[in-house]
Design brief:
With about 190 residues, the chain is an alpha/beta fold. The protein has helices at about 10-15, 25-30, 40-45, 50-60, 75-90, 100-115, 125-130, 145-155, 160-170, 175-185, and strands at about 1-5, 30-40, 65, 115-120, 140-145. The protein has two domains: about 1-145, Rossmann fold (3-Layer(aba) Sandwich); about 145-190, no CATH class. It has a five-stranded parallel sheet, with helices on both faces.
């Protein structure tokens, strides 16, 4: 279990996409003691309705804290603005200013406050973080759905293989999810 993480909308949408399985509500509190979500990323979770409901329930039960740069100290705001500026130059297209804004706000907030884990399912984000933000002080690492499955497989999260497979199958949305899980991610013969 991590001490603190900040969560992206895409991870919430993928974990919360099922009405039948409440993966977002059940799994997120197992990952970290303190879970933060930037208000902009929170506002991006509009569909599916099941994800929005589970996320709201996590907020209502104080499992997830919605944060904003308005809450930062003067020094933290300086760091936030610098991180946001660097990230936005690479991640935000001026013709589509809201595309990637949740990730940009979340990462800038994480850098300003020393949150070491960004829970997202963006597979190309870590190299950008490494290049622009990670200096050896308050480095940020992405935690993806595949990493959550790996934590389960390694016994660091109390979820069964069967549960992890269902999570992977639904959250990944891949046609080959079962085969990939059974033969590469968590083979039965382990």
């Amino acid at each position: 279990m991590y001490e603190k993480i900040i969560v992206d909308a895409d991870l919430c949408i993928k974990l919360g996409c099922s009405e039948k399985y409440r993966f977002l509500f059940e799994v997120l509190p197992l990952i970290s003691e303190k879970i933060y979500m930037h208000e902009h990323a929170f506002s991006e979770v509009l569909i599916p309705e099941s994800a929005q409901k589970q996320l709201k329930e996590l907020v209502d039960k104080d499992f997830v804290s919605i944060v904003s740069e308005k809450d930062l100290s003067k020094q933290e705001k300086i760091i936030y603005r610098m991180a946001y500026k660097m990230l936005s130059e690479v991640m935000i297209d001026p013709s589509r200013p809201n595309k990637n804004k949740g990730e940009t706000c979340s990462l800038a907030y994480a850098k300003a406050t020393g949150i070491p884990i960004f829970a997202t399912d963006e597979k190309t984000l870590q190299p950008i973080i490494d290049k622009l933000l990670n200096t050896g002080i308050d480095d940020i690492h992405c935690l993806r759905i595949i990493d959550i499955i790996e934590l389960c497989r390694n016994g660091k999260m109390p979820l069964s293989r069967k549960y992890a497979k269902a999570l992977w199958r639904i959250a990944s949305g891949r046609k080959d999810a079962n085969d990939l899980f059974d033969f590469k991610i968590w083979p039965v013969m382990e």
